[in-house]
Automatic annotation (TrEMBL):
Name of this protein: Protein-L-isoaspartate O-methyltransferase
Subcellular location: Cytoplasm
Top-rank EC class of the record's enzyme: transferase
Transmembrane portions of the chain: none
Gene3D superfamilies linked to this entry: Vaccinia Virus protein VP39
GO biological process, one term: methylation
Family under the similarity heading: Belongs to the methyltransferase superfamily. L-isoaspartyl/D-aspartyl protein methyltransferase family.
GO molecular function, one term: protein-L-isoaspartate (D-aspartate) O-methyltransferase activity
Pfam family, one: PCMT
Keyword Repressor: no
Amino acid sequence: MDFAIARRRMVEQQIMARGVTDQRVLDAMLQVPRHLFVEPGLHSHAYSDASLPIGEKQTISQPYMVASMSAALELEGHERILEIGTGSGYQSAILSLLVKRVYSIERISSLAGRARKVLDQLCLSNVNIKVGDGTIGWKDQAPFDGILVAAGAPDIPTEYLQQLEIGGKLVLPVGDRSQQILMRITRLENGNYKREQLMGCRFVPLIGEQGWLTADED
Ligand code: SAM
């Protein structure tokens, strides 16, 4: 399988065709080898229009969703970004090409370890990963120019609003455990927050102090 050709098809048919136009995001999606973030047995599916299992009942997000969330942050290159839910590390890799530094939190240590290895293999050294509850953000490193949450929250964790820089954007899925609305919240200069609903989506649950309290139905 020619992975470069598969990536180009993915970008043209799944991402550009659905309206993502940010050239820096499209270039990053063309560049990052998504197959390295899944098990060898799934390499041939790595550029399909789907999320895929990565173990621990978690998933690598659908390429279109990774591109859309990245584009929704409207990045220029100078930003420090907080990512919640490192998972396979694929979204972190895309962000690492788009910004100055990525701070990523994953609650499952085996996934965080595997993501670290792949990012190191690709020499993507501007990603800091820590294991912990990402629903409380990363206070030591706040404020952030953008926060991207790759798991579905029952509500907007207040810590994210507080850890956002003025002008910064928070992109996160909010809803119930099976389906959510992707929201973008921008911190305005006057202290208010602008809220936008971007699209429907389905993410695994955000589990923690300011998310769902348990992994399964309560
Ligand atoms: N964007 C990732 C990728 O490209 O592989 C996929 C993320 S996956 C859909 C969601 C991840 O969020 C899972 O790995 C899950 O363990 C993690 N997660 C859920 N709740 C979390 C929390 N409170 N803090 C940190 N990570 C969390």
